[in-house]
Design a protein that fits this description.
It is built from nine helices and nine strands. The protein is of the alpha/beta class. It starts with a helix and ends with a strand.
């Protein structure tokens, strides 16, 4: 066995140990609950733009993009645009002609101006409208039809009904071997009432939508190795790999 193979065999042992250690998972959930009131995910930027994610998930996304080499990444939910910039920079590193398509019901003018002024903007297209509007989803499908390898990230409205409809509309666009990433499944692991000013909560969130969606398809499976690796993630159970045409 080569030294490289030995290293990755050790990593697999690490992941197996983490997957089986319930105390580590509980410690992670306790930590997430403790930092939630401090808006921890708002504290980071990517190439100058706020990126509302755990850094651990950005590490996982770059691994996925490098390994699967999509040439189109569709993301619902734009906010400040940090994730769009992140995806575009990863495609830039791949060296292909990859594009990023962002969809948001409300692209605020100050955010649009900053995104359009960014060096990565040449790879980015934005559509304003609800991701579950059939006409908007149709525009995304038309763009996806021009790409060979398509990845999708869902990160907009986090209610069960909204995410389930997004899954119905955008999962068919994901190509074999690429990923469908559903953000904020972590809501299901948080104490009830953790989001008093939001329409989502325990029992009504992206995780419940993923669970319902997976009962209807054999095209996707949860990449549990990513969950074991990250531990700290906004998307436990939300990294779905397309395993069938």
């Amino acid at each position: 066995m080569s030294e490289v193979a030995k290293f990755f065999a050790e990593v697999q042992d690490n992941l197996d140990g983490l997957r089986a250690d319930a105390s580590v998972r509980q410690a992670t959930l306790d930590w997430v609950a403790a930092i939630a009131p401090h808006n921890y995910t708002y504290n980071f930027t990517w190439l100058g733009r706020p990126v509302i994610q755990f850094p651990q998930d950005l590490a996982a996304l770059q691994e996925i993009i490098w390994d699967t080499r999509p040439n189109l990444i569709i993301e619902t939910g734009i906010a400040h645009g940090g994730s769009l910039i992140f995806h575009a920079s990863m495609l830039q590193l791949l060296g292909n002609a990859g594009r990023v398509l962002g969809i948001d019901i409300d692209i605020r003018e100050h955010n649009r101006a900053e995104i359009e002024a960014h060096p990565m903007f040449e790879r980015i297209e934005m559509i304003q409208g609800s991701a579950i509007d059939d006409a908007i989803a149709g525009q995304a499908a038309a763009v996806a039809a021009t790409a060979e390898r398509v990845m999708v990230v869902l990160d907009s409205n986090h209610t069960h009904a909204h995410v389930l409809r997004e899954l119905e509309l955008y999962a068919p666009l994901v190509t074999m071997g690429c990923y469908l990433v559903v953000c904020d499944t972590l809501i299901e692991d948080m104490p009830a009432g953790s989001f008093p000013n939001r329409p989502w909560d325990k029992g009504d969130n992206p995780r419940t939508a993923v669970d319902a969606f997976l009962k209807t398809t054999n095209r996707f499976e949860v990449d549990t190795a990513i969950d074991a690796k990250l531990q700290i993630s906004v998307a436990p159970g939300g990294y779905l790999k397309c395993v069938a045409e």
